[in-house]
Amino acid sequence: MGVLVKAVHITEVRKAVNAMRTAAGLTPTMFTDNALVGMPIKRLHITEPRSSLDEARSTMGFGQILYIDPTLTVGVTTVKAAHVQQLRSGTQ
């Protein structure tokens, strides 16, 4: 069994992504589903931060992240802790 992705993990990633965006001179992203507690994780909880982080990294001249499962398909791709970890790593 894999690692359980919790709401706090997504919230931490969102904060880190928005900190990167601020450092890049971009506006913070207003993410969908602000209150995540008790909500099942959705594809967009990974794809939104990815897009926002990609823009910030590009603006800052950093390389592109080669994502595990670059395309997340609803009902096919399971959201993994590795997806969250990649986002965390991309903000450091």
Can you characterise this structure?
There is one protein chain. This protein is an all-alpha fold. The protein has one domain (7-90). The chain is 47% helix and 0% strand. It has 3 helices and no strands. The chain has helices at 7-23, 44-59, 81-90. The radius of gyration is 13 Å and the shape is globular. It starts with 6 loop residues before the first helix and ends with a helix. The relative contact order is 0.22.
Question: What's this, in brief?
Answer:
This protein is about 45% helix and about 0% strand.
Number of helices: 3
- Helical proportion? 40-55%
Order of helices and strands: HHH
Mean pLDDT: 91
| Beta-strand content | under 5%
Topology:
Elements: H1 7-23, H2 44-59, H3 81-90
Quick tags:
92 residues; mainly alpha; 3 helices
